[in-house]
Specification:
3 helices, Nuclear Transport Factor 2, Chain: A, 6-stranded mixed sheet, alpha+beta, 30% helix
């Protein structure tokens, strides 16, 4: 059975692939923090996230993130993804680490 953290990670991945900004943002806390692993803060807050992903979706209408693997431990989910279909033609392998508190993702670390 999936835990809450896994459900939220999957919901945001599905919304990302559907380019549904409202559904995508619905799983994140208002003061979500986004980091480049291990500790570089990229930005904080749902409004900044909306700006970034709204632009990302508009400029990359054909992108798709395929989940290669997922590990879960309590409130932490680690996804390994292959992102294709980007406008610049560059395919990316990325690792995203999600930390969940309650029913929202509160922190994300990206490893590229």
């Amino acid at each position: 059975m999936e835990n809450m953290a896994e459900q939220l990670a999957q919901k945001q991945l599905d919304a990302y692939n559907n380019q549904d900004i409202e559904e995508f943002l619905s799983v994140y806390s208002e003061d979500v923090s986004i980091y480049e692993f291990p500790s570089t803060l990229l930005y904080k807050g749902i409004d900044k996230m909306r700006e970034r992903y709204d632009q990302l979706f508009k400029t990359n209408p054909n992108q798709h993130a395929k989940l290669l693997s997922r590990m879960t431990n309590n409130n932490i989910v680690i996804d390994h993804e292959h992102v294709t279909g980007r406008a610049n033609g560059v395919n990316v392998f990325a690792i995203a680490i999600y930390e969940v508190e309650g029913d929202k993702i509160t922190k994300v670390w990206f490893i590229k």
